[in-house]
Every structure is written in structure tokens, then in C-alpha cells.
Automatic annotation (TrEMBL):
This is BR serine/threonine kinase 2. Pfam families: KA1_BRSK.
């Protein structure tokens, strides 16, 4: 059976890759109890541990953040269209969504163009991606293998 994973996309336009990366790292550093590591030039791994309450309820949220140039965009170093994907690795889904919403709000507020859109939805073999307004739909994605 195919493994389902929680996946949230944010699409950012008219910004250089260096600014997108800087905004993501700045958002990471602004959230207490969140630590991150750099996996590659366009990938990060993050872990959020909630503070307060009994330790037994403190299951950490681990997720990966990948930046990719969207199709039809310019060369990766130029200003263009970038897709930032947040993939839940382990931990509570609701807490993952709250943390990503916080990061997303910072990414969007640091962007001075109104053309930023959030993308998420059921992207299975027969479904097409759903485009919506900022803070739009969120859903699950069926993992079909490595992305090209």
C-alpha cells in the first residue's frame, strides 16, 4: 500500500533563491523550541518541541523543508517562482500544521509582492494540484516516489 504523508506547499514569486532561503532560516530562528539543520543548499530538516506540560505529551514534530524552482521559472539563482514544500516526517499532524502556518505567515509577510499563493491538496495519480488564496487548502499527498 502507498504511504500517505502530510505535505504543505507555499509558492513564492519574484524573489531570488538566496532571499527565500534567508526568510526560511529567519522564520526557523524566530520560533522558540524549533531547531533546524541544513541538508543541502535547498533542503532543511527541522524539529519542534512544544514547551510546558508533562514530558509524556511532548512528542516532537520533525519535518523537512525543500525549495525547488517551479516549472517555467527562471534559473534557480535568479528571481523566479519557487515552491517551498513542508513534509511531515514524524509527530502530531495538527502541531505540524500550526508550526508550518507560523512559518508560512512569516514567509508571506516578508514578501512585498501580492502574488504569493499557497498550494496544497490531494495530489494523487489522477488529481491535479489545487491553487488557492494565501492560507488556502491543505491536504495529504500520496507519495509516488522521488520527485523529478
Amino acid at each position: 500500500s502507498l504511504e500517505k504523508e502530510e505535505l504543505i506547499f507555499v509558492v513564492i514569486r519574484d524573489k531570488p533563491l538566496s532571499s527565500v532561503k534567508a526568510d526560511i532560516v529567519h522564520a526557523f530562528l524566530s520560533i522558540p523550541s524549533l531547531s533546524h539543520s541544513v541538508l543541502s543548499q535547498t533542503s532543511f530538516r527541522a524539529e519542534y518541541r512544544a514547551s510546558g506540560g508533562p514530558a509524556v505529551f511532548q512528542k516532537p514534530v520533525r519535518f523537512q523543508v525543500d525549495i525547488s524552482a517551479s516549472e517555467g521559472g527562471a534559473a534557480p539563482k535568479d528571481s523566479g517562482v519557487f515552491s517551498v514544500s513542508f513534509t511531515l516526517i514524524s509527530g502530531p499532524s495538527r502541531r505540524f500544521k500550526r508550526v508550518v502556518e507560523t512559518i508560512q505567515a512569516q514567509l508571506l509577510s516578508s514578501h512585498d509582492q501580492p502574488s504569493v499563493q499557497a498550494l496544497a491538496g490531494e495530489c494523487g495519480p489522477t488529481a491535479s494540484p489545487l491553487w488557492g488564496p494565501v492560507g488556502g487548502l491543505r491536504g495529504r499527498k500520496t507519495r509516488m516516489g522521488p520527485r523529478p
